[in-house]
């Protein structure tokens, strides 16, 4: 992993637990697998504890690690560095994506509440005018507040599921679209499963929590964005390519809908892109995921997984081969 992240991901109390569960070889962080120290460590290591910045674990690396039995990732996706060949060698894989889902879901709930209150455009208006709001400022919005709203969750990912759980704290009806979730599973989560067209057409808030794959590219295209209700709020804390940026821009410029975007396509948007200056668009710099003191939660989960492996019990957060194509 990136050595500069070590103390954030594994703060002292977490590092102590790590050292109680494992012999760490070599004692320093490995930033690449070609050094003599790394080669010697690979020859005897049973578990690779990885993180952001992990170099690619390919056939050559696996060949040099004959005793390797698990890769435990103290971050989100493993798809960027781990070859699927690892599964063929019987190597267990775990990820801290569930820990990263916590701040993303919290950010999303905050965006839903603030967005439903029209806090972002009204704050901008207040700042520019320096006078109190008027009834006309509120009347131009189709609805304001969370009472009785319908929230459409796209994707029953770890984050999507946690968002549904957090939505129990407000008075909202929840719709869910996920082709891999049944009606019964959705009901257990606290949502009503529906098709995507119905979800975008009937939701006051549409929040995206699907992975970026060829199947989800421009999941919200011009046709689906046009189905959204006037005054609806779109939240994207997942991946920019889920949305057709050009199509979305037209609907935002017209003022027909609002958006809170933690990710865009491209990312960042060009400096002269019209979204930057729209009062109904709130753009943040891809910060919904773990930041600052939240990062230690990922390391703690990874160390928990390592301790489970050491005790010979199943991992709590496995990444399965059959799920790779449809997860982030």
Automatic annotation (TrEMBL):
Belongs to the D-isomer specific 2-hydroxyacid dehydrogenase family. Coiled coil: none annotated. The keyword Oxidoreductase applies. Keywords: NAD, Oxidoreductase. Residues 37-319 form the D-isomer specific 2-hydroxyacid dehydrogenase catalytic domain. It comes from the Bacteria. The keyword Plastid does not apply. Pfam families: 2-Hacid_dh, 2-Hacid_dh_C. This is Hydroxyacid dehydrogenase. PANTHER family: 2-HYDROXYACID DEHYDROGENASE YGL185C-RELATED, 2-HYDROXYACID DEHYDROGENASE-RELATED. Residues 128-288 form the D-isomer specific 2-hydroxyacid dehydrogenase NAD-binding domain. PROSITE patterns: D_2_HYDROXYACID_DH_2 (PS00670), D_2_HYDROXYACID_DH_3 (PS00671). It comes from Streptomyces aureus.
